[in-house]
Structure formats: structure tokens, C-alpha cells
Amino acid sequence: MEALAKTIYDYWFVQFDFPDKNGKPYKSSGGKMVWNAQLKREVPEGWEVARIGSHIRSNRGISYSTKNIASGKGFLMINLNSFNVDSTYKVAGIKTFEGDVLDNKLLKPFDLVMCNTQQTDLDPKKDIIGKSFLVPDIFDSPVTSSHHVTSIHVDDDDLKVFLNAMFHTREFHSYISGFASGTSIRGLNFFGVESCITALPPKSLLSLFASLIMACEKQKSTVLRNQALLQPLRDNLLPLLMNGQVEVAG
User: Fold this and answer.
1) Mean of the pLDDT values across residues 189-218?
2) CATH number of this structure's domain 53-200, picked from the four choices 3.40.50.11030, 3.30.565.10, 3.40.190.10, 3.90.220.20
3) Cα separation of 22 and 25, whole Å?
């Protein structure tokens, strides 16, 4: 599903061969392209070119100390260790935060979050700084995020899905790495995200793209929920199978 989402994004928004009004690939079928001086390249006629910052609001997560996470109780907390290198959610990385959490620091399913910290030198094969994902719909209790995570609020849900896909591209990560600074710990200057200029598709195309991607995101959440249910069963049965205490019927 991740590969499918990346392929659709590349085909539609990099090569500009999204479906035109006749269902044919736009650019390959002669769709009109216009030169944009800001981007220094051609974009489809009628597309908006804008700073991402004009469409988003950022909100850094909560600060914590060792005592806040030592008990294993409290709010589930998405944190630095919740990000995989491939911009997916790492189930095993979740922490808990024991303390007060304001309502504006709580996350909802499919909220957009970005990692703003990295504890290693920059390396494209290992970087998580600047990586993003949509919060999976797998939590049955309130969830928040640490100060190593920035939640990105987008008024238009369809645009949120588009931006998340754009954040996954190699080009964006190469760009945003230039806004990471520090010695032993790298921190992301969020101005880099806000100042990024990109071409934005019309609403109709955004909605079509979002409907396809959200179907994948919901399926991914279902898979993660099922894995959480099956893992304890596997952990209980595996030792019994290895010891010959139970057998699998043929």
C-alpha cells in the first residue's frame, strides 16, 4: 500500500499525468503547462503555487522527563521512536506520559505528525527527521505526542493527505535536511516546512487523490489492529508448539 501511494503521487504530481477530464493522462495527452518563475519549471495550468505555511498551523508536542514516562501509565505518547525510516508508524515505539495534557496536545486518528528531532548524524538511509505519517486509527485511549514531534494542522483534509505524500518524497527530504542543525542531536527548524513553495492541485484532484490514499490508510489501521490482537496469541502458542505440547492439525 505504501508503494502504491508513492506510485500514484509520482505519476500524478511529479510527472503530471493525473487523469484529465476525459480520464487520460494530463501531460502526456497534451494538457496545457505554464512556466512558473518561483518553481523555475512548468506546472499544469490553473494550479496554485504557494508557500506551505499559508495552509498549515504547527503545534509541537509536550515536553517530558524520565519521571513522566517511568510508570508505564497515563496517556499514550507518539515520540521520536514512533517513526520508521520509510515514514511509517512504528508500533513498538509508543511511550506513555503520566501528567497533565491540554486538549490542544491530543491527537485524533489520521492527524498529520512530523518528526522534528534526530539523535544521529544526517544520513539519507537512516534519517527520520522531517519524516511524517498520518496517526493510525488504532488507539482506544487518548494519545498525545512528545516535543520531538510536531503536529501539522491543515484546514482541508484532502490537502493534508497530499502534503503527507509530498513529505515522503526524496526531493522534500533532501530539501528539509538543510533545516536540521545541531551537534549530537539534530533539531528541525520548522520554518523550512512553512517556507517550502510547491504547486497545489485543484480541489477536485486533491479529493480524488485523498479518497484513494485514505482507503489505504484505513486498511493499514485495520491490519495494525489485527496484528495487536494476534500477537499475544502467537506469543502464547509458539512455546507450546516448540515444546510439543500442542500440535497443528494437518
Assistant:
1) 96
2) 3.90.220.20
3) 9
Whole-model pTM over 0.70: yes
User: Contact, 222 vs 118, CB < 8 A?
Assistant: no
Lowest mean pLDDT among 31-35, 60-64, 212-216, 233-237: 233-237
The per-residue DSSP string of the chain comes to -HHHHHHHHIIIIIS---B-TTSSBTTTTT--EEEETTTTEEEETT-EEEEGGGTEEEEE-B---HHHHSSS-SEEEE-GGGB-TTS-B-GGG-EEE-S---GGGEE-TT-EEEE-EESS---TTT--TT-EEEPPS--SS-EEEBTTEEEEEESSHHHHHHHHHHHTSHHHHHHHGGGEE-SSSEEE-THHHHH-EEEE--HHHHHHHHHHHHHHHHHHHHHHHHHHHHHHHHHHHHHHHHTTSS----
Domain spans in the chain, listed from the N-terminal domain onward: 53-200
- Which single residue is written with the C-alpha cell 500477537? 231
What pLDDT does 245 receive? 65
Q: Which three cell numbers stand for residue 60?
A: 509541537
Indicate the pLDDT class of residue 248, thresholds 50, 70 and 90. low
**223 Cβ neighbours under 8 A, 6+ residues apart:** none
Query: What is the pLDDT, as a whole number, of residue 225?
Result: 87
